[in-house]
Write a structure and sequence with these properties.
The chain is an alpha/beta fold. Helices cover 36% and strands 15% of the residues. The chain has a six-stranded mixed β-sheet, sandwiched between helices. Helix 3 links the parallel strand 4 and strand 5. The chain starts with 15 loop residues before the first strand and ends with a helix. Bound molecules: 4'-deoxy-4'-aminopyridoxal-5'-phosphate. 4'-deoxy-4'-aminopyridoxal-5'-phosphate (PMP) binds next to helix 6. 4'-deoxy-4'-aminopyridoxal-5'-phosphate binds next to helix 6. GO terms for molecular function: transferase activity, transferring alkyl or aryl (other than methyl) groups. Belongs to the cysteine synthase/cystathionine beta-synthase family. This is Cystathionine beta-synthase. Keywords: CBS domain, Pyridoxal phosphate.
Length: 338
Amino acid sequence: MKYYNNILETIGNTPMVKLNKLVAEIPATVLAKVETFNPGNSIKDRMALKMIEDAEKEGKLKPGYTIIEGTSGNTGMGLAIAAIIKGYKCIFTTTDKQSKEKVDALKAFGAEVIVCPTNVDPEDPRSYYSVSSRLVNETPNSWKANQYDNLSNSKAHYEQTGPEIWEQTEGKITHLVVGVGTGGTICGTGKYLKEKNPNIKIWGIDTYGSVFKKYKETGIFDKNEIYPYITEGIGEDFLPENVDMSIIDLFEKVTDKDAALMTREIVKKEGIFVGNSAGAAIAGLKQLKDKLTKDDVVVVIFHDHGTRYLGKMFNDDWMRERGFLQEEFITAKDLVKD
Ligand code: PMP
């Protein structure tokens, strides 16, 4: 019989899929690492399990404990799945910017979810970082995963995502393109790939409203770079420990509109149902296409699944309200003159 002993054993070994119509104008071969095939439908299953296993080994997480984390949803999903199999409780804090689908999905897995305001400083007592820290202090037998500064996050990608990409491309990869949030995916994967071949370029995709690009280029942490944005999963208003700037060769910023429109394009042109950061990554890659040649092999990470964005990028009203869709539908009401 061929079976897995539990759902956690299905994490990783995701497929690599060549992109065709979507990237017709890019001279290189472009391959997507489609992380939606993980059981929680995102790449974050990998690091969630690794953080839990490392904490268990270090004696920080014991049977019956409560796992606490500030999460935009995908990390929470990975933690919640592992918690079910391993017998932990979960309490997550998230922001009111995140899609309702993500919050409901976490609750479906038995997690308690506390929604906090987006537009406050990380140090503000109402921020989702502060609330999760306070919960750890107030909850006996609890452990905060701390995906931003917990280096088990990037280690998961150094141990799994990097070797998988190296093998799947038979060592031919020349560029890695990744949306950056905690930095775990890009820095863990990029570190492994650069050790194999230091000529591989590692390109980070950032958002307008985030500090990464300016910091990489000037070494200055510029608070003026911080303002609210719509793109989910990438960009930060602080520098997480998992971001190792020495691994990343450059950052490219993508607008909320371009990321949202490109998310829809991926589905329409390739039939791959992915989330907002995949759209940002492809839009960023297209902005950088003049740096590529026909011999290049580019791998783009598709972090998560489109179902989590049905009420957002995939909803025409949501897109129109933000001015992201140009065409206007004429309704019967518009035709009635009073
Ligand atoms: N895309 C999505 C949808 C995510 O949830 C995240 C995690 N915040 C990222 C991209 C960025 O990945 P990382 O945290 O590893 O930098």
